Amino acid sequence: MKPLILAAMLVWAAPAAAAPEPAAPAVQADWRRDGVDERIKAGLTSLGWRLEDDGRALDPKTKSPAAKAVLDKAVLDLRQDARRAALESLNLMLDPNRPAEFGDDTRKQLLAQDLPPGLAAAVLDPDSDLSKTRAMAVAELDKVAAYFDGGRTMADRRAAAQPVSAGTPGPRVDLPYHTVLERSVGEKLQASARAEIGRDPFGRTVLSRLDAAGKPDLPPILVEDQGGGIVARYDYRRRAVVLDREGVLASVTGTVPPRQAAALRASLSTRAALLAYLEAHPEAVEAVVKDNDVLLVHELTHAWQDRRDPVFREMARGNIPDVQPLEYEEEAYKTKNLYIRSKLKHDPASVKMNDDFDDYVMMTHGLGSWRRKLFDDIETAAPARALTLKSTTSIEAARLARVRARSVATSEEQQAKALDLLGLNRGQKELAKLEAAHAKRMAALDPEIEGATTASFKDLGSYYLVQALTATRAPDRMTFLEKAGRYARASGDNTLIEEVRKAKEQTQ
């Protein structure tokens, strides 16, 4: 007891007039200095952070520069979440009751970057003991799960346990726009998107799905650095469509003569300068939308899914793993391709030859092979997140089992466990409902796609014929004519076959 008495005496003897030393001012975060790589940058922006060119990190809630400690905690959470996603996918792959799938080895290599070094080495070693590797993976997942369990407050748990309603936002960013200028540009992009997509009959169907009380209600549109080759994406945490700044810049510089493009690009090197230019030049806004209307249709489909189903809301609240459901991607890609098909019929001149067009062509040649390739490509791009609903349900079941097995010693711990189980059970039910609903939707949609194959081939034949007639290079002209002839024959349209034949004669 003597040390305690001495300490008390020292405090008592302190001069009455002595004031406590002021706390050291918090160090302001600088994301360029504080270890924010491209992946973490993308993760932070999806949570509503704004990473400014000067290094400031604006907090999603206050919209003010954050302290270094706050940013460090957000980065740690993201790294831990990435590790949890990799471990959950890995545990699924290592399940002895699950048959090995094509591409599993490649997926393990991609997952290894987010695994602890020892586990990564064991996963990549073909001679490692599978049971021991699985035990390591389970132990590591338990550690990460404990990190997130310990970080949730009782208020978080109560909020997540509340039933989902149509207006339940969950812990999502209410105001994705940080500035008046950003909001103004976003609204201009919204208006231009409604006009451009609404020119097409199927496009109007896509837009109508997002109407609220009979009025247009598109999600906010943001311009941000995406990285990783992403041109556009729907961010369910902010309920917003995000366009990549570089892609937008390319569209803007395409509105001026080539000799002026370099100078314009240099003058728009900052995000603020680009937004100011879009605000002052409606033709640039229109160019951005025309270049990206197909991608916007894809992302607007994800926005519709978010409003239609509670799955994204449950993800935001932690009741469903943060994944990229492949079935949602299937629906969005099919919707995007149906938009291209409609454009080929009603306004073929607006259709661009790019990756989206190639994807549409592949879909017309067979839904089964197209779907397999689509899933493989997405899984390769996001090995820890791109999962089928069946796999996501398996991960959800494992989370439930882990919480059920969690020991409790106090009434508060018991209440926390009960709330966690309530949210996870509801998430599991929503996944099952979505899997059944998706199968029903695709059973209705696929025959419509396959039943229009002949008409699609005719439209493609006509499209390639026009491309051939307007091509400036002879090799391109011959290539387009060959494709036009192939699709004309596949469609069985004698008039089109004859038009292609005459075009070939004129080029010889």
What does this structure look like?
Helix content is 66%, strand content 4%. It is built from 22 helices and seven strands. The chain has helices at residues 2-12, 38-46, 68-93, 104-111, 117-124, 130-151, 154-161, 180-197, 201-208, 245-253, 258-267, 271-280, 282-308, 311-316, 326-346, 355-364, 367-381, 389-404, 411-451, 453-470, 474-491, 494-507, and strands at 50-51, 57-58, 221-224, 232-235, 240-244, 324-325, 386-387. Strand 4 and strand 5 form a beta hairpin. The longest helix has 41 residues, at 411-451. It is globular and about 85 Å long. The relative contact order is 0.08. Residues 1-16 have low confidence and may be disordered.
On the 0-100 scale, what is the average pLDDT?
90
**Order of neighbouring strands in the sheet with most strands:** 3-5-4
Overall radius of gyration = 27 Å
Structural category: mainly alpha
Shape label? globular
In which range does the helix fraction lie?
55-70%
Order of helices and strands: HHEEHHHHHHHEEEHHHHHEHHHEHHHHH
User: How many helices in DSSP terms?
Assistant: 22
Q: Give the end-to-end Cα distance, rounded to a whole number of Å.
A: 106 Å
| Topology, number of strands | 7
Largest sheet: 3 strands, mixed
- Strand fraction equals under 5%
Task: Produce the secondary structure layout.
Layout: H1 2-12, H2 38-46, E1 50-51, E2 57-58, H3 68-93, H4 104-111, H5 117-124, H6 130-151, H7 154-161, H8 180-197, H9 201-208, E3 221-224, E4 232-235, E5 240-244, H10 245-253, H11 258-267, H12 271-280, H13 282-308, H14 311-316, E6 324-325, H15 326-346, H16 355-364, H17 367-381, E7 386-387, H18 389-404, H19 411-451, H20 453-470, H21 474-491, H22 494-507
Parallel strand pairs: 3-5, 6-7
Antiparallel strand pairs: 1-2, 4-5
Helix pairs in contact: 3-6, 7-19, 8-12, 8-13, 9-15, 10-11, 10-13, 12-13, 13-15, 15-16, 15-19, 16-17, 18-19, 20-21, 20-22, 21-22
